[in-house]
Amino acid sequence: MPYIKQSIRNKLDPFIDELIYCLVGYDKYVEPGTLNYVLTRILSRTLSDHPSYGELSSIVGVLETMKLEFQRRIVSPYEDKKILENGDVY
User: Fold this and answer.
1) d(CA 2, CA 16)
2) Which end of the chain is more exposed for a tag (fewer CB within 10 A), N or C?
3) Which helix (H) or strand (E) holds 71?
4) Is the dihedral of CA 26, 34, 48, 1 positive or negative?
5) Do both 5 and 33 map to the same domain?
């Protein structure tokens, strides 16, 4: 769930914004391999020294829910727009 308290967002956002700027500048695009690298480093560095199955499973769950929310909020509206522009397939 990315909908965390504003106070936590306020602490994190300056660092996230700086990372985004380092990745893409003003182009608003990052190569998929670079994005994969950054996210992999973040996830792997937040693991304990000897992660348990539960810890690993929790991270996989976070990734899955991130994917689903990205699909719902970003990809689906994009696809709906393209249906209107180009016609439905179904």
Assistant:
1) 14
2) C
3) none
4) positive
5) yes
